[in-house]
Amino acid sequence: MSQIDKTQEEYNELVKKHQPSDSKVKNFFSAYLVGGLICLLGQIIIELLVGTGLELTDAASYTGLALILVGAVLTGFGVYDELAQFAGGGTIIPITGFANAIVAPAMEYRQEGYILGLGKQIYSVAGPVITYGILSAFLIGVIKLLLG
């Protein structure tokens, strides 16, 4: 056994020793719990808004805005990252994950300036999603216009 093979073997053992154990069952339940709680919060907001006399479609729009605001504020204070460490995919799927995808790069690059830092990087994660959504909406609108 060469010195390189021995060093590689020692390195692999060291990595295995310090690597956290990954429980798929725990990850599943924590993602399900947190994602479900985010959705429950959204449903509570919808029910409160409908209870004040708003139409369901308007209440759903305001709820989306409220959840985006909550996700953005929690990201700004660093709470959303801690929650994501615990819940994993449970925080990515809801609309709050979209807010996190916009605010997190903004927080990371803000010290590089407003143009080259913040302006350039803020949409690095969500930019393709926004572009696809706008382009799809435009094409569907054109098709609808052409079909009458």
What does this structure look like?
The protein is mainly alpha-helical and 148 residues long. It has eight helices and no strands. It has helices spanning 3-18, 24-51, 56-76, 79-87, 89-92, 95-109, 114-121, 127-147. Helix 2 (24-51) crosses helix 3, helix 3 runs parallel beside helix 6 (95-109) and helix 6 (95-109) packs antiparallel against helix 7 (114-121). The termini are far apart.
Distance between the termini: 76 Å
CA-based shape: extended
Radius of gyration: 22 Å
N-to-C series of helices and strands: HHHHHHHH
Main structural class: mainly alpha
Continuous helix count: 8
Query: What's the count of strands?
Result: 0
In short:
This protein has helices spanning 3-18, 24-51, 56-76, 79-87, 89-92, 95-109, 114-121, 127-147. It is mainly α and 148 residues long.
Helix/strand layout:
Layout: H1 3-18, H2 24-51, H3 56-76, H4 79-87, H5 89-92, H6 95-109, H7 114-121, H8 127-147
Quick tags:
single chain; 148 residues; mainly alpha; 82% helix; extended
